[in-house]
Amino acid sequence: MTRPAAPPGPTYTAARLVTIAALILVITAGHMLTDRATHDEHVVHVLLRMAYLLPILLGAVWYGTVGAIAITAMISIVFGLHIATAWEGALWENANQLAMLGAFWVLGVAAGVLIDLEQRADQWRREAEERTQRQVLVYGLDALEAALKSRDENTREHGEAVAALAADMADMLGLPAERRELVRLAGRVHDLGKIGVRDDVLYKPDRLSPDELARMRQHPQIAADILAAVPGTKEIARIVRAHHEYLDGSGYPEGLRGDQIPIEAQILTVADVFCALTDDRAYHAGKSVDEALALLDEWTPRRVAPEIVRALHAVLDRRSRHP
């Protein structure tokens, strides 16, 4: 998914402000240091007066209407002081200078409004592109889910349950809407890689051999590789790849530790484990909700984060009160 460009950092913003302030200072100093006795000197004053348009335009381009108004107000103060001190009693020239001040305001506000409108149009275009990409993404995931259903209906149903639970947990943890949606979409296809696992391994009712276990543990990477072919799934693939990683590094496929594991993947891990424990599988009968929660509580904080397990408790409690 595309994202809006990040705003300028503090250093960049400071450099812009220093540039504008320096321009105003240089132009104002030029006014103060240039005499007005001759025609040529008067022309210099006119050119310097017009030079004030540059910082006003920069303020509009960099900061929109608010920036243009702030810069124009600042210039009005310093230029007004110049009029009052250097051109006292020159009524016709004062009229020209005041007219120029009015032009500053008209240009500054107009430029600022136009820049704001252009930025708003850019934002609307970005949002439209994001909606289109999101729709393409959903269509792509629907197709992958259909492929998963044709292979294993139980895996698809498990994915739907994990997606709903993980999204509720993300909401409980206060993740923003965009991140909650990533968690939900990743939950839908987190077991997609099982398409690449042989039936005799996937449906084996007994304990897997070391070779079979190694093959089964490739499914997060297989899923990530499949998702790589779908536009806009980079973040989802990253979450899916890490949904069997544990905080202590004992997970797979990369043995990630602690903060190396995305928070969305950590949420998905807990939701996946809970749903897997409470489901009836070929190799075990489903545990009760209390038994599954007790096991996850034992896994904290070594394998999973306590706050994520607490979010699971809270979601299940909310569901029991508001089914």
Structural write-up:
The chain is 73% helix and 0% strand. It has 323 residues and is an all-alpha fold. The longest helix has 61 residues, at 91-151. It is elongated and about 105 Å long.
Give a brief rundown of this model.
This protein is mainly alpha-helical and 323 residues long.
By helix and strand content, what is the structural category?
Answer: mainly alpha
The average pLDDT score comes to: 85
Quaternary state of the chains:
single chain
Q: Give the radius of gyration.
A: 32 Å
The helical percent reads: over 70%
Helix segment count? Answer: 13
Shape: elongated
In N-to-C order, the SSE pattern is: HHHHHHHHHHHHH
SS strand fraction = under 5%
Q: Distance between termini?
A: 33 Å
Q: Count of DSSP E strands?
A: 0
Uncertain spans: 1-6
**Main beta sheet:** none
